[in-house]
Automatic annotation (TrEMBL):
Family matches, as Pfam families: GATase_2, Glu_syn_central, Glu_synthase
Cofactor: [3Fe-4S] cluster; FMN
Pathway(s) per entry: Nitrogen metabolism; Amino-acid biosynthesis; L-glutamate biosynthesis via GLT pathway; L-glutamate from 2-oxoglutarate and L-glutamine (ferredoxin route): step 1/1; Energy metabolism; nitrogen metabolism
Family the entry assigns: Belongs to the glutamate synthase family.
Region spans: Disordered: 1001-1050
Source species: Olea europaea subsp. europaea
Molecular function via GO: 3 iron, 4 sulfur cluster binding; glutamate synthase (ferredoxin) activity; metal ion binding
Enzyme class: oxidoreductase
Family annotation (InterPro entries): Aldolase_TIM, ET-N_metabolism_enzyme, GATase_2_dom, Glu_synth_centr_N, Glu_synthdom, Ntn_hydrolases_N
Transmembrane feature ranges: none
UniProt keyword terms in alphabetical order: 3Fe-4S, Amino-acid biosynthesis, Flavoprotein, FMN, Glutamate biosynthesis, Glutamine amidotransferase, Iron, Iron-sulfur, Metal-binding, Oxidoreductase
Coiled coil: none
Entry protein name: glutamate synthase (ferredoxin)
Length: 1050
């Protein structure tokens, strides 16, 4: 766990409450907390693919900033997109921007949330006071700055306190407000008074343009003396605007009109210099949000309104933010406009890209043709919580209930549910219908939500945020994860339970009814005949048997392996191992060869990509023990307009996994509804290499564009050919998939078709994950399957099996084993990132790039981080060609080349941990030989460039300091501290060895969460010959050693 300076990790209160008097009647109380984190990487990048119609490309601009939390430089940023040319444009002309990983990583956080609701739906002062009390008790769940006063964020959402505002309106001479036709906006405006007036003018003009009457502005009274230094430096002007909507009668129509106004204001502000200082906390006739960059204990003191006895509400959602490794900002405090979110959306980049892709198809009568005016529906510069809130808000404003919206966005793990299909088949049908329409926003999430009429909570499919609920004889319902923040009489409890994974509970405020999980979802699922639509339109791809013989001879297979970059290690250590054992090969942890861009050997494009993994407090999933919540299923076909419900949206094909054999691919190609098209992926170098790859990519994207516009729902990008041609090498399939994926996104066509890769260039799980992560829904690895068949039919393999030296597998089983290994490997990769569904991983681009230049990233991997630049398209073409020419070489090689990427070999790739270096280091340490160490240093300094730091040199104009004036090492090491690593994350031996080593140095080790065995607390007194019965698994011990950690987390 990482914590801010001066913050103490406090223990969690136990679930208890006996003997405590309950003074709250007819209330629902919910309290949720937790920690999630993300890395801070602050960069600006925008890149777009060309659009049909001649819109110019824009460039990727990157600037590297460190991970330092720079409070003083924080500025409010609105939840709006910036227009590239700085000018206000019509929404139909806005050029889409792919979600950028740098922006996304810079806004991750975690928090504690809760709600209180009155079942009688009567405004109560007690509700507000209890919410503030509960929020104050959750201070230990949030973070604050080095000044100990600037909080990461806290806030409350309530119904609008009309009594308070009517009192103000009467004082201003406005008169009583018409509650049924008045909206209230809570707005953060620029600090500068002149800029604030400019912003108010823009707001007034938009409201006037929309036919709304602005009744007045109210300066929200606050106490700035209790705000921390850093928060005060960036504190906005906080104003409320009151508008009358006379032309609408229905509440939903009024809320839609206010939503449209806010979107138009945000767009108008985006072209102003102060645009990033305008932010709407809320604009509604039902709810209002008070929040800020404050500690939870002072929120009620900061806003005088919250202390006013006239501030009453029938419900309150409260939130305390923990912004791990990120810069807190006023707008990013929560609750958002609908949600209070505790967790992290791990698939956020893919979710944003898919939301952008479907913008062109989103239409609904409720918007009366104004859909273009409310785009975009996501913002990469906002937090993952803000974007999830935006998606939910859009669905709700489009006519969905909050419960339905969250069932669509955050579905439960319904496929392997033991009873759901039997008891509630209609709920399964609902999820089946929407699975192909909306990718799940996946990651640990506890969500509290309200639209002013319904208040509820739901958990993600893993249930990684605990939540209990109970009901009392006084008709009080509680939902909580931390008990003790408010008094409660346990003797009145008549029902108890907990929210399990994927479960939901909702309170209907007008009716006073509380609906538990099945009741909520059954009501939603029965609203349409989803079962009928699914059974009539959704098709399942039936498994097809693997081939029992090779399609080409061994010589042709060998040439294809050479042409597509296979090495002997790839075939023998990866493919053959997977075919024989049904699992991935096991190598040592780590990679000690040079990065692909620094290597002297040619590399496949995949080697330039590094997979990201789960953040600090976001646990990885165990794909073996938690496999019930995971799924590799994918849907192929057109994704329809999600705002319209009908049978045509269910017309798709379900694949049980993204790994296809030749027969299954053939079945897809014969599906008349998909109207599949095969696009060859070869580039012509007959007129030279330079420019050839770029020209072919342009033609490939144009061809994809054309066939999709003509109704194709399945694009098959294929490097399969009867005969290889020397002047027509295959485009790296990852480049082809990425380029087509990005092109279709930029042209609003991505939802119309799925992409399948039919390729020889894929055989490892990393390669499969790259293709899927950049847009492929499925992969047919035909050359890998050919290689499996070739291995099984080889004389060597037959003899080994006959002699009992290798388990006997049939040719079909060998291919099945390979596919099984790939699927298991994909589950492992998903689990490392905390993702449960492959469908959410598809297009999520959860990679960082090392060694590819802006030109390549712009075309195929837009939005991914490539900090150091690297290869151009022409350079990539030449690297690809270096493999391809081997298939046409006059040199009659009989074996694939061994590049030595996995195992060290003389003449192969350089390994930093090579035998010679290891021997020298061992000799220097064991013999305490300075001569041997000097030789080791010489080898170390003369080694090839291996990592990025090898390219750096110290540059200084200062004279060297004499060694005698330098602080001794023995003193420096006393300031060393280790990271907090829990026992289990590392082995007991490692955990104790680190503690002993740090204690010898005088430094500090960290126990990690959970503490440590008390046996480690006392110094050792029983050591003989380096061994101790107290710690028998360690050697090299000394009397006086202690394995206790100086820093303990409990």
């Amino acid at each position: 766990m990482s914590v801010h300076s001066a913050q103490v990790v406090q223990s969690v209160k136990l679930f208890a409450g006996n003997g405590i008097t309950n003074t709250n009647k007819d209330l629902i109380f919910a309290d949720f907390f937790g920690l999630c984190s993300g890395k801070k990487t602050n960069k600006n990048s925008s890149c777009t693919r060309r659009r049909v119609g001649g819109v110019n490309n824009s460039n990727v601009q990157r600037s590297f900033l460190g991970l330092k939390k720079n409070w003083a430089s924080i500025k409010s940023v609105p939840d709006i997109e910036r227009v590239n040319n700085g000018l206000l444009q019509q929404s139909s002309d806005l050029e889409p921007k792919v979600a950028n990983l740098d922006d996304i990583l810079s806004e991750r956080g975690a928090c504690g949330v809760g709600f209180i609701a009155n079942l009688e739906n009567k405004g109560s002062r007690e509700i507000v006071e209890d919410a503030l009390t509960a929020l104050g008790c959750m201070e230990h769940r949030g973070g604050c700055g080095a000044d100990n006063d600037s909080g990461d964020g806290s806030g409350v959402m309530t119904s609008i306190p009309w009594e308070l505002f009517n009192n103000w309106a009467n004082e201003q001479g406005i008169g009583a407000l018409d509650q049924s036709h008045t909206g209230v906006g809570m707005i953060f405006l620029p600090k500068d008074d002149d800029l604030m007036k400019q912003a108010q003018t823009v707001i007034l003009n938009i409201f006037k343009q929309e036919g709304l009457q602005v009744l007045g502005w109210r300066t929200v009274p606050v106490d700035t003396s209790i705000v921390g230094y850093y928060a005060r430096e960036t504190m906005p002007n906080i104003q409320q605007v009151f508008v009358q909507i006379a032309k609408e009668e229905n509440i939903d129509d009024i809320e839609r009109e206010l939503y449209i106004c806010r979107k138009l204001i945000e767009r108008a502000a985006s072209s102003e210099t102060w645009g990033n200082e305008l932010y709407f906390c809320s604009l509604s006739s039902q709810t209002i949000v008070y929040k800020g960059m404050l500690r939870s204990e002072v929120l009620g003191k900061f806003y005088f309104d919250l202390q006013n006895d006239l501030y009453k509400s029938p419900f309150a959602i409260y939130h305390r933010r923990y912004s791990t490794n990120t810069s807190p900002r006023w707008p990013l405090a929560q609750p958002m406009r609908f949600l209070g979110h505790n967790g992290e959306i791990n698939t956020i980049q893919g979710n944003l890209n898919w939301m952008q892709s479907r913008e062109a198809s989103l239409k609904s009568p409720v918007w009366r043709g104004r859909e273009n005016e409310i785009r975009p529906f996501g913002n990469p510069k906002a937090s993952d919580s803000a974007n999830l809130d935006s998606a939910a808000e859009f669905l709700i404003r489009s006519g969905r209930t909050p419960e339905e919206a969250l069932m669509i966005l955050v579905p439960e793990a319904y496929k392997n549910h033991p009873t759901l299909a039997i008891k509630y088949p209609e709920i399964v049908d609902f999820y089946d219908y929407y699975k192909g329409q909306m990718e799940a926003w996946d990651g640990p999430a506890l969500l509290l939500f309200s639209d002013g009429k319904t208040v509820g909570a739901c958990l993600d499919r893993n249930g990684l945020r605990p939540a209990r609920y109970w009901r009392t004889i006084d008709n009080v319902v509680y939902v909580a994860s931390e008990v003790g923040v408010l008094p409660m009489d346990d003797s009145k409890v008549i029902m108890k339970g907990r929210l399990g994974p994927g479960m939901m509970i909702a309170v209907n405020l007008p009716s006073g009814q509380v609906y538990e999980n099945a009741e909520v979802k059954k009501q939603v699922a029965l609203s349409n005949p989803y079962g009928k639509w699914v059974s009539e339109n959704l098709r399942i791809l039936k498994p097809v048997n693997f081939l029992s013989q090779n399609l080409v001879d061994n010589g042709a297979i060998f040439r294809r392996q050479q042409a597509h970059g296979y090495s002997s290690e790839d075939v023998q250590m990866v493919i053959e191992t997977m075919a024989s054992q049904g699992k991935e090969p096991t190598f040592c942890m780590g990679d000690d060869i040079p990065l692909a861009v620094l290597s002297r050997k040619p590399h496949m494009l995949y080697d330039y990509f590094k997979q990201r993994f789960a953040q600090v407090t976001n646990p990885a999933i165990d794909p073996l023990r938690e496999g019930l919540v995971m799924s590799l299923e994918v849907n192929l076909g057109k994704r329809g307009n999600i705002l319209e419900v009908g049978p045509e949206n269910a017309s798709q094909v379900i694949l049980s996994s993204p790994v296809l054999n030749e027969g299954e691919l053939e079945s897809l190609l014969n599906d008349p509804y998909l109207k599949p098209q095969v696009l060859p992926t070869f580039f012509d170098i007959g007129k030279g290499v330079d420019g050839s790859l770029e020209k072919t990519l342009d033609k490939l994207c144009e061809a994809a564009d054309e066939v999709v516009r003509n109704g194709c729902q399945l694009l098959v990008l294929s490097d399969r050919s009867d005969e290889l041609e020397a002047t027509r090498p295959a485009i790296p399939i990852l480049l082809a998939v990425g380029a087509v994926h990005q092109h279709l996104i930029q042209n609003g066509l991505r939802m119309q078709a799925s992409i399948v890769a039919d390729t020889a260039q894929c055989f490892s799980t990393h390669q499969f994950s790259c293709l899927i992560g950049y847009g492929a829904s499925a992969v047919c690895p035909y050359l890998a399957l050919e290689t499996c068949r070739q291995w099984r039919l080889s004389t060597k393999t037959v003899n080994l099996m006959r002699n009992g030296k290798m388990p006997t597998v049939t040719i079909e089983q060998a291919q099945m084993n390979f596919c099984k290994a790939v699927k298991s490997g994909l589950m492992k990769i998903l689990s490392k990132m905390g993702i449960s569904l492959l469908s959410s991983y598809c297009g999520a681009q959860i990679f960082e790039i090392y060694g590819l230049g802006k030109e390549i990233v712009d075309i195929a991997f837009c939005g991914s981080t490539s900090s150091i630049g690297g290869l151009t398209l022409d350079e990539l073409a030449r690297e690809t060609l270096s493999f391809w020419v081997k298939a046409f070489s006059e040199d009659t090689a009989k074996r694939l080349e061994n590049f030595g990427f996995i195992q060290f070999r003389p003449g192969g790739e350089y390994h930093s941990n090579n035998p010679e270096m290891s021997k020298l280091l061992h000799k220097a340490v064991r013999q305490k030989s300075e001569t041997a160490y000097s030789i080791y240093q010489q080898h170390l300094s003369s080694r090839p460039v291996n990592v990025l730091r090898d390219l750096l040199e110290f540059k200084s104009d200062r004279s060297p300091i004499p060694v005698g004036r330098v602080e001794p090492a023995s003193s420096i090491v006393e300031r060393f501290c280790t990271g907090g690593m829990s026992l289990g994350a590392i082995s007991r031996e490692t955990h104790e060895a680190i503690a002993i080593a740090m204690n010898r140095l005088g430094g500090k080790s960290n126990s990690g969460e959970g503490g440590e065995d008390p046996i480690r607390w006392s110094p050792l007194t029983d050591v003989e010959d380096g061994y101790s019965p107290t710690l028998p698994h360690l050697k090299g011990l000394q009397n006086g050693d202690t394995a206790t950690s100086a820093i303990k987390q409990v």
